[in-house]
């Protein structure tokens, strides 16, 4: 006879843990009521999260944390954008760009939270200094210029149309089983966007560059590549066709 199917009685955040301040990628602790034999079967593999079982309460405790690769790749995009700003400043062109991390975005399509978000427009970046908590584009707040999704399991492509509908100019995605991708809005496409080979918000940056930026390598080697890539993007932005995006500070 087949064993009965177990239905968890409760899946809830642990009462002693407040909501994580770091957003969806902050560590989260949950408790699930289950028999001990099921807990042993679920956690008997190398990819199990941090966990323990309380025999007195019958609760399994799971600690879910972002993996190191995900965080390194997310931070790499921030270092690149900061590097472009520094390279522009070294050439006498200060810009007011703003990185807002995993800011929650609200729109008619729902709530979305990218792994990293960047305002590359000086006026919008300054307006964000007065915003706390989340950005509701329905109230007239501007969305980020660029958002980045680092996918660990489920792909983020279902977010592309909502991002572009709210006014995001470009999305970078990376999945551990696929190449990096650069997406731009395209009202004529069935998905509302299209895959492009080169970034428009960071001109001269290609999919190959993103693949290398996200690749595992020595920290010093990755840092050198990021600085070199930032200088190239800055040089391109300072060309006559792209000078509008890097207008000097007021």
CATH T-level topology of the largest domain: tt1808, chain A
Rounded to an integer in angstroms, the radius of gyration calculated over CA atoms is: 21 Å
Helix coverage percent of residues? 25-40%
Identify the CATH class of the largest domain: Alpha Beta
Q: Point out poorly predicted stretches.
A: 1-25
Order of strands across the widest beta sheet? 5-8-10-11-12-13
> What is the residue-averaged pLDDT?
79
Q: What count of domains describes the coordinates?
A: 2
Q: Specify the biggest β-sheet.
A: 6 strands, mixed
Element-by-element helix/strand order: EEHEEHEEEEHEEHEEEHH
Quote the beta fraction.
15-25%
- Known CATH architecture of the largest domain: Alpha-Beta Complex
Continuous helix count: 6
* Alpha-carbon distance between the two ends: 76 Å
Count all strands and give the number. Answer: 13
Task: Briefly note the structural class of the backbone.
Answer: alpha+beta
Task: Explain how this protein is built.
By secondary structure, the protein is an alpha+beta fold. 28% of the residues lie in helices and 23% in strands. It is built from 6 helices and 13 strands. The protein has helices at residues 36-42, 68-90, 122-127, 160-166, 207-214, 219-237, and strands spanning 11-13, 28-33, 50-54, 59-64, 98-99, 104-107, 110-113, 116-119, 134-136, 146-151, 170-175, 181-185, 193-196. The protein has a 6-stranded mixed sheet. Helix 2 (68-90) packs across helix 6. It is globular and about 65 Å long.
């Amino acid at each position: 006879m087949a064993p009965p199917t177990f239905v968890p009685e409760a899946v809830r955040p642990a009462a002693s843990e407040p909501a994580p301040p770091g957003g969806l990628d902050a560590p989260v602790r949950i408790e699930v009521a289950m028999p001990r034999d099921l807990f042993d079967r679920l956690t008997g593999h190398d990819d199990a999260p941090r966990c323990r079982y309380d025999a007195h309460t019958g609760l399994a405790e799971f600690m879910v944390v972002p993996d190191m690769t995900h965080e390194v790749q997310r931070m790499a995009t921030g270092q690149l954008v900061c590097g472009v700003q520094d390279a522009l400043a070294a050439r006498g062109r200060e810009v007011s760009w703003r990185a807002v991390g995993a800011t929650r975005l609200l729109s008619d399509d729902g709530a979305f939270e990218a792994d990293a978000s960047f305002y590359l427009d000086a006026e919008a970046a300054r307006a964000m200094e007065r915003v706390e908590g989340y950005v509701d584009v329905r109230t007239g707040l501007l969305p980020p210029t660029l958002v980045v999704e680092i996918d660990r399991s489920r792909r983020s492509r279902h977010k592309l149309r909502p991002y572009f509908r709210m006014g995001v100019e470009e999305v970078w995605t990376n999945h551990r089983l696929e190449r990096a991708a650069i997406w731009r809005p395209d009202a004529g496409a069935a998905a509302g966007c299209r895959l492009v080979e080169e970034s428009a918000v960071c001109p001269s940056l290609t999919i190959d560059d993103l693949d290398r930026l996200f690749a595992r390598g020595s920290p010093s080697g990755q840092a050198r590549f990021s600085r070199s890539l930032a200088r190239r993007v800055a040089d391109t932005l300072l060309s006559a066709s792209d000078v509008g995006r890097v207008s000097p500070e007021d």
